[in-house]
Amino acid sequence: MAKITSIEVFPLIAKFKKPFSFSGITRTSSKNIILRINTDEGVYGIGEACPVPGMSGETSASICSVIKEFIAPALQGADPLQVSVLTAKIDKIVGGNVVAKAGINIALYDLAGKLLGVPVYTLLGGKFRDYVDINGSVGLGTADEMTATAEEQMEEAGVRYIKLYCGRDDVDKDVKKLKDIIKRIGNRARVFLDVNQQWTPKTAIHAIRALEEENLLYVEQPTPKWDYAGMRQVCEAVETPIAADEAVFYTTDITNLALHRAADIITIYALKPGGIKKGYESIMLSTALGMECFIGSYLELGVGTAAGIHLSAAIPTLKYPCYMFGPLKYEHDVLKEDLQIKDGKVKVPDAPGLGVDIDEDRLRSMLAE
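Predicted structure:
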């Protein structure tokens, strides 16, 4: 029986191909962390943590510190196949820190899959699909800039779904700009919006009603995450489905959203709830409550994206595209072989574990100084 011997942490600086703006933030790079859990049998598992301080409050430094000081000692000598037991143990030792925990949980699933000789989706009960529809995403900019980015993504990856970020400008100017972009994209891709909580309920209703003739796929988190009454008000006032994102970290959030009828769709991540295990629990709860769900992302590199793909494969009925576009946003990835993305779909990896591995030279070249 394999035993965990050590956990390695590799803080990186991953540069985007172009600046990426949303809400009040512009990102030119991301301080992702690659993790490796080693065993006495020579088999290892890899994971990824992608800090977005505005979401979970974590940074690269805090993630590395929590793992080294608290999580690694707690897992020393443990049986890596006891994934749920180890996840519960970590939760008792460290509160919050969901992205740090997610990186470890992803690595545990990768390791368990490798030890058992099965892909992660098998550990989740199997895959419902071989390929997952993905969407591109276009950060804030002028109509010309945003249209050009959409064009690039449709050309590069063949995506048929495009997320447009909005909400920072005057609402009527925003609506006019969005209509212009959607008209230029035409029937080549279905568009949806991510507002990142920037609208009030009244503004959201005004804007979404003005855009409903554009046949939006859905609108993501138009109002503040804490305002369940406002979210319900928007859901009841418009025809376009409303997705909750920032409002969802834990399964209790999904339950509360359902009780308040404050969302039509739940956005689930591999990282935000604390890893693959809790992401899968969120899928099962959403399904049981009769709510649609899909997998979002923090724009992870290939390792974290692979975790999201396995979760996407495990959703019984997947009506919406998943945000597995992260690796295409970066100048370089850390994988030996890139994920297979073509014609707007990503192939679900079938090799044991996550089905991906690290290129050591690429990893070393991206290490933070």
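Summary: The chain has a mean pLDDT of 96.
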